Amino acid sequence: MSQASERPSPEDIILYEKDPATRIATITLNRPNYLNAPTIAARQRYARLVQRANVDDEVKVLVIRGVGNHLGSGADLPEQSELFSDNMDSSLLHEFEIPDDEGVKYPPKDSYRYLATLVQHYATTGSGMRSLQDFKKISIVEAKGYCYGWHFYQAADADMVISSDEALFGHSAWRYAGWAARMWQWALMMGLRKFQEMVFTGRPFTAQEMYDCHFVNSVVPREQLEAETLKYALACAKNRPTDTVVMQKTFFEVFKQNQGEYMGSVLTGWLESMLPMVKTDGDELALGDDTFDKGLNNAVKDNDANFPEDWRLSYKSRPPAEPAGNEVELLRAQVAALQEQLKALEQKLGG
């Protein structure tokens, strides 16, 4: 039986507000008990809200944040499991906002188009996967806790990412599929060498690692995150006029298309559609009816134990983080040590 009736409405999951005085709008992902996982309908609402902010003359900056301890761990995997399981009565037509009773027949499961139709849809704005690429104003993602899957897409597409220092970035799909929609964009934003490391090992990267590879703009302690995001948002809102911003974004869009952003989205869609052709080695997590019936989220959690502790996706499975310390306090300690050395040297010379 489908769990659809138990899921919150898209309006409850995706909140929207704007402040005309500052020209800052905020999309808040509001499903903390499920790690802010958007349903299909919530992704579609997200796409519409991004477009709404794009048109609205009272919006210059769009901030995307999450309620609770995490930005989010990706899409609603139980819902996706229902779509692909033979034992569930769910339709892929919902991804296209087509009701079941409108006389549209989805391609059969044994056809190439069964999977290809869906994954090529992920390259479009309306799917809620690529919406920020077509946003002609300034977008800022506020990352904290888990930034996985769908939420990681938003971070890759945003103009800026402000992160708390404990955040983890990645995608569980590296573990159960080997690829994910629009992965070309991650390669562009992280750099090929580090992105290959993420894909081939399946490990998440820390906020500091993502800062070091220029994916993240600023890393701060959790308690400073909202203030840091607001600082960036207000600076952007007070800088050049909205017309200038749209012109700037057009320049950057051409730059990204010269790097193949949309082409890469289409290419990754083809790659994802090849999944039924993959022959497993027999000892790894693989997508199939058994996996979907068990629950993809449960299968991913069980598989996490096969990896080194410090490379696991779940905070609960990772070793306790060593105190990072405050950078200012560290510098003060170093200065104090140098002062002691200088004092000892002066005494020696004076003696």
UniProtKB/TrEMBL annotation:
UniProt keywords, alphabetically: Isomerase
Gene Ontology terms for molecular function: isomerase activity
Keyword presence, DNA damage: no
Domain of life: Bacteria
InterPro entries the UniProt entry points to: ClpP/crotonase-like_dom_sf, Enoyl-CoA_hydra/iso
Keyword Isomerase: yes
CDD domains assigned: crotonase-like (cd06558)
Similarity comment: Belongs to the enoyl-CoA hydratase/isomerase family.
Name of this protein: Enoyl-CoA hydratase/isomerase family protein
